[in-house]
From TrEMBL:
The gene is mutY. This is Adenine DNA glycosylase. Residues 39-188 form the HhH-GPD domain. It comes from Agrobacterium salinitolerans. Binds 1 [4Fe-4S] cluster. Its cofactor is [4Fe-4S] cluster. NCBIfam families: mutY (TIGR01084). PANTHER family: ADENINE DNA GLYCOSYLASE (PTHR42944). Its EC number is 3.2.2.31. It holds the Pfam family NUDIX_4. CDD domains: ENDO3c, NUDIX_DNA_Glycosylase_C-MutY.
């Protein structure tokens, strides 16, 4: 029933092998499946597509990614968010190349031994790339399962019960296609709002539809208000048209990414917001405030800008001067692109909007 629907209505995605190709014995490339699944965590399909293609163009094989400079990988990832994924991506590629001869393990257990691969990713790669009977459950699948069986317990506590149902339904034959069919069903038919139940292959057995309340599921626990953190960011531009940048430490939020100097804000603590916290003396002018929403908190940065006469002496660990015209090649996370666009509006001209987007991260995998 579901697989027949998938054969006709599956999405064409650059990391996928079509059902027709799979029927001819062609399996999905484990490297492609793994790369796409890591990118798709907390990110939409449409946002991931160009990044996936960019990574494949730069690093066609996992060995190539393993050998790439970490700075290049972080720069290529910039704007995709959740930057621990990029750090773990590099570590995982290195482990596959070093410990497995560039070949991914073909079982859930073996895959989970790799850096950054947990229950979901190991199941997805095992099922889709290696035809293992693994229960794959992402947010889309949770929605389908919760509606199909009317699972009333709120998330995340209901996840084990949902996973059991997915395991029961996953067939020994075509488990990868089944997993992708469930994802596609949740993304295109069993949507959060106004699901197209009349087109669903499960509409004859869906308990939520029988009760005429599919949008009530999945049940979610009440959200806690996100804390607000404060800080300041300092954008220095010299007469050569260069901006002062520095690299964050490898650990923690935005670890290893590029930034303009900021005060020491964290997810738990505020940083200073006054000009007195500037990294060096200059004619700092207030340029407004930007707001960026992370998963667990909201950050408000007061932005200051200074025009400086030349390349101020900064220590080797403090930063470097980068041409403003070369910012797209830097590993700038979205929050820093917002800061720079606030301080230097010219970086947000229409031709630069993809580089300096002020949009917030999306939290669904559609």
């Amino acid at each position: 029933m579901l697989l027949a629907w998938y054969d006709r209505h599956h999405r064409e995605l650059p990391w996928r092998t079509s059902p027709a190709m799979a029927a001819q014995g062609k399996r999905a490339d484990p490297y492609h499946v793994w790369l796409s699944e890591v990118m798709l965590q907390q990110t939409t399909v449409q946002a991931v597509k160009p990044y996936f293609l960019k990574f494949l163009a730069a690093w066609p094989r996992v060995d190539d990614l393993a050998a790439a400079p970490v700075e290049d990988v972080m720069a290529a990832w910039a704007g995709l968010g959740y930057y621990a994924r990029a750090r773990n991506l590099k570590k995982c590629a290195e482990a596959v190349a070093r410990e497995h001869g560039g070949v991914f393990p073909d079982t859930e257990e073996g895959l989970k031994q790799l850096p950054g691969i947990g229950d979901y990713t190991s199941a997805a790669v095992a099922a889709i790339a290696f035809n293992r009977q693994a229960a794959v459950m992402d947010g889309n699948v949770e929605r389908v399962i919760s509606r199909l069986f009317v699972i009333d317990a709120p998330l995340p506590g209901s996840k084990p019960a949902m996973k059991m149902k997915v395991a029961e339904l996953t067939p020994a034959d075509r488990p990868g296609d089944f997993a992708q069919a469930m994802m596609d069903l949740g993304a295109t038919i069993c949507t959060p709002k106004r699901p197209a139940c009349a087109l669903c292959p499960f509409n004859g057995v869906c308990l939520a539809l029988a009760e005429d309340e599919p949008e009530r599921f999945p049940v979610k626990a009440a959200k806690k208000a996100k804390p607000v953190r404060l800080g300041a960011a300092f954008v220095a531009v010299n007469t050569e048209g260069e901006i002062l940048l520095r690299r964050r430490i490898d650990s923690g939020l935005l670890g290893g990414m590029t930034e303009v100097p900021t005060t020491a804000w964290t997810a738990r603590l505020d940083g200073g917001t006054e000009v007195s916290h500037a990294p060096f003396a200059a004619d700092w002018q207030a340029a407004g405030v930007i707001v960026h929403v992370f998963t667990h908190f909201e950050l408000r940065l007061t932005v200051y800008r200074a025009q400086v006469p030349d390349r101020l002496q900064t220590g080797p660990d403090d930063g470097w001067w980068e041409p403003v015209t070369n910012l797209d090649a830097q590993a700038l996370p979205t929050v820093m692109k917002k800061v720079i666009a606030q301080a230097i509006p010219s970086t947000h001209r229409p031709e630069n909007r993809n580089r300096f987007s002020t949009g917030t991260m999306r939290n669904s995998k559609f």
